[in-house]
Amino acid sequence: MSIPSFGVGTFRLQGQVVIDSVRTALEVGYRAIDTAQIYGNEADVGQAIGESGVARDQLFVTTKIWTANYAADKLIPSLKDSLAKLRTDHVDLTLIHWPAPGNGVPLTEYMQALAEARAQGLTGQIGISNFNIALTREAIAAVGKEAIATNQIELSPYLQSRQLTAFLKEQGIHVTSYMTLAYGKVLKDPVIADIARRHGATPAQVALAWALGEGYSVIPSSTKRENLAGNLLARDLHLTDEDMARIAALERNGREVSPDGLAPAWD
Questions:
Q1: Crossing angle of helices 133-143/162-171, nearest 10°?
Q2: What residues are labeled active site?
């Protein structure tokens, strides 16, 4: 099953807030949901899915293994715990959340443990998140590039990471963009606003359509039905070559997320 181009993210949402967000997203047409062990909301996401009435085989659920669970004797048990919280016998995609260089667990160990989780049927696909080129090469050496379904990385009009995305494309590894709206900063950009006006669209739709036009998957989050439904319309917004070129010129290395001890040396 290929990775859906459009999903709903759940970062920083917990309790009834995330239950309502996921339930609303499913109601307005989303069928892919992205969560993670460290978000502390897998049980809430599982509840929302369970109460939604949408069949499990119609959904694509992604979770991410947290750094404390990278060791070979911890990764699979932690994923089984995630499955229990999510009320499912498997997820569709499991990612290593951060490379966390120097955390004491060799990359080869956790990548091979993740591959074993797939072999056991606990996850349909496996992948990585926040990996630079060098670490992606190590992951490829550990499990093979065909095994790595995606690298989920921060990307926005202000952070386009052309070197990394070109490498991933060359390797046949799909790119998933998170923080595509740069915490809302790109929504105030005059270029984005101008493109939005000319298309009768919202700035959020333009930023998301840019990422989709680059071939990336996106996982924006929202707690508002209007925004969840509106974001989904980005799939129908076709930007011109001129629009894409204007957005390409907005690159400013505007990284929003780079936690010490977790992040690699960025390309």
A1: 20
A2: 39
